[in-house]
Design brief:
about 210 residues; Arc Repressor Mutant, subunit A; 2 domains; about 50% helix
Length: about 210
């Protein structure tokens, strides 16, 4: 049976290149998404075997999309495909429950193998990813705690992207009052009370790119 894939990246040319490459390898690209929110919606509709997701996407980044998918689509395996090899990004992805982490610079060598590995129930990380980071997480010796809820992280990302409260409410499908409540709670939890500092925190956590 042909393995069905979701491709999620905010650059159409990247998706097109990946589709061409993966279809030549015998995979079926069942659906595409340009942001994390679309990815979650498309997985719910199409039920692909594997979701290949970029970290740096608008509205909902790849790590937050992975967290949503682990709750709503447990049968779909998740592979992060990104240019980021920093420990922060890898750790966040591990905490989100991804099955694979592949660097864009290693697509030709690693992506097909990653898809096959995760479909067999294994995990796959590009060889250049720090083994120490993966090992520390798997042994639970270096897992950082995050005080924010999933919705609070989503609101934080949109704030850091420069979205207004109204825009955040529209994109998340919630009321203005609810967005304001989440903003107040996350600022209190982080003890951060100005937007510039929230943006810096979001960058450190890998929610957005600098």
């Amino acid at each position: 049976m042909t393995t069905r894939l979701l491709l999620a990246d905010d650059h159409a040319l990247v998706r097109q290149g990946l589709r061409t490459f993966l279809e030549k390898q015998g995979f079926q690209v069942a659906c595409e998404a340009s942001n994390g929110q679309e990815a979650v919606q498309m997985v719910a509709k199409q039920h692909p075997d594997v979701a290949i997701i970029d970290i740096s996407m608008p509205i909902l980044n790849g790590v937050e999309a992975a967290r949503e998918l682990k709750k709503s689509a447990r049968k779909t395996k998740i592979i992060i495909l990104t240019k980021h090899d920093e420990d922060t990004y890898v750790t966040e992805a591990l905490q989100a429950g991804v099955s694979g982490y592949v660097l864009k610079s290693q697509v030709a060598n690693d992506l097909v193998r990653a898809i096959n590995e995760v479909c067999r129930g294994s995990v796959y990380f590009s060889p250049t990813i720090s083994r120490a980071v993966v090992g520390a997480y798997l042994s639970k010796t270096d897992a950082r705690t995050d005080p924010l809820s999933a919705r609070e992280r989503q609101v934080l990302q949109l704030i850091a992207e420069g979205k207004s409260t109204r825009e955040a409410a529209q994109q998340l499908g919630i009321s203005l009052k609810t967005v304001e409540s989440h903003r107040t709670k996350l600022m209190r939890k982080l003890d951060i009370h100005e937007t510039a500092s929230l943006v810096r925190y979001a960058i450190r956590r890998g929610l957005i790119q600098p």
